[in-house]
Design goal:
The chain is mainly alpha-helical and 237 residues long. Helices cover 65% and strands 0% of the residues. The radius of gyration is 28 Å and the shape is extended.
Length: 237
């Protein structure tokens, strides 16, 4: 299957580079980087970094002003830490070291699973982003057409697909095919592991529910003739 995908990618890229252009289009449909993309990249990175630092600073200030709202478990002694607010950035270590089970005990299973979902997204993005930048970016840079890009000033152009050399397309197709399946496997395995963990925690949560709550159902749109305790009980029994 991997060979078929690699061969298909090789054929498509070879046709795109050496085939006859489509009659309806006189230009390459691939959108390439322009002159200002590198500056836009750094501008976005600077803005997002500044915004993140600002939000963290506001949180630290609000944590000191309103500890009951942002650190209530600590205030009531639930976290059992020795004066964690002595260091304003102690919450970073506490957040990273807190397990899902502890979070479920303190803030409920739904809140803990929301944090778990964010962790899952971060893990998937990290496992995909780092190899894509290091492997795909390096492969595109290695296979670039140096003569065509001799006077190119935008650094992002050297790692994009449109800059590859036609003589090295076969190698790049193999790398892309492997990376595609890597992305698929990473997402499937991470989601499957998270789903299994969720089922275990959900079953344990259901088993700990009180008997009345665990065996209660909500009934809506009851017909008029069953709107009594006796009639409704007889209907379900």
């Amino acid at each position: 299957l991997l060979f078929c995908i690699a061969f298909g990618g090789l054929s498509c890229q070879w046709s795109a580079l050496h085939g006859t252009p489509h009659p309806a289009s006189n230009a390459d449909p691939t959108k390439v980087n322009s002159q200002g993309d590198w500056a836009a990249f750094w501008s976005a990175l600077t803005f997002n970094g500044t915004f993140t630092i600002t939000v963290i600073g506001l949180f630290v200030a609000l944590l000191a002003l309103f500890p009951t709202i942002y650190a209530n478990n600590e205030c009531i002694g639930l976290t059992k830490e020795d004066n964690p607010r002595a260091d304003r950035f102690r919450w970073i270590q506490s957040s990273l070291s807190t397990t899902t089970s502890a979070s479920a005990e303190w803030i409920g299973l739904d809140g803990a699973l929301l944090i778990r979902y964010c962790d899952l997204c971060l893990r998937i993005l990290f496992l995909i982003y780092v190899p894509m930048v290091s492997v795909i970016g390096s492969a595109n840079y290695y296979c670039k057409d140096s003569k065509r890009l001799e006077h190119e000033a935008d650094p992002l152009t050297f790692i994009e697909v449109s800059s590859i050399d036609a003589n090295k397309t076969w190698l790049l197709s193999l790398v892309h095919a492997v990376c595609v399946w890597y992305v698929v496997l990473v997402v499937v395995l991470c989601v499957d592991a998270a789903q299994k963990d969720f089922l275990v925690r959900r079953v344990k949560w259901l088993e700990k529910l009180p008997v009345i709550k665990a065996n209660s159902v909500m009934v809506e749109k009851i017909p008029y003739e069953y709107r009594s305790q006796t009639a409704l009980t007889d209907f379900f029994t």
